[in-house]
Amino acid sequence: MRTIRRDGWTAADYDSEQILHELGHRDAAARVTRARRRRPLRRAWRTLRARLHRSAATATPAACIDWDAARAAADAVNRGDTDEAHRIVQATPDPRTTAFAAFRFIGVE
């Protein structure tokens, strides 16, 4: 269990400090504190680099919502005809996203 004490250190941080002391580092606490410091610029750079170098095969395609079909499916659900709604949604390029979009219109007259 990872519990953070009042000073912000975890049990793993204390273990790291002890190991650095045993290895002969005089500034063990400073090294552990420095290692725990947040680095927002580094995280942003890693995220950007990962997005730029993502291959086309693993890239997530943009959602293709057929809003007319979503509205028609919601109208069918509002009438109580769920089979018709299912048929309408399944005929779209992205049935899952279109069905989810149809929830916006269910109950709306």
Task: Describe the protein.
- Helix content is 59%, strand content 0%.
- It is built from six helices and no strands.
- The protein is elongated and about 75 Å long.
Produce the secondary structure layout.
Blueprint: H1 11-22, H2 28-36, H3 40-52, H4 67-79, H5 82-90, H6 95-102
User: What share of the residues does DSSP label as strand, in percent?
Assistant: under 5%
Tell me, what's the shape? elongated
Number of helices: 6
Biggest beta sheet summary: none
- Class by alpha and beta content: mainly alpha
Estimated radius of gyration? 27 Å
The poorly predicted ranges are: none
Strand tally, please? 0
- Average pLDDT for all residues: 80
Could you write a compact summary of the structure shown?
The protein is mainly α and 109 residues long. The protein is built from six helices and no strands.
Question: What are the salient characteristics of this protein?
Answer:
0% strand, single chain, 109 residues, 6 helices, elongated
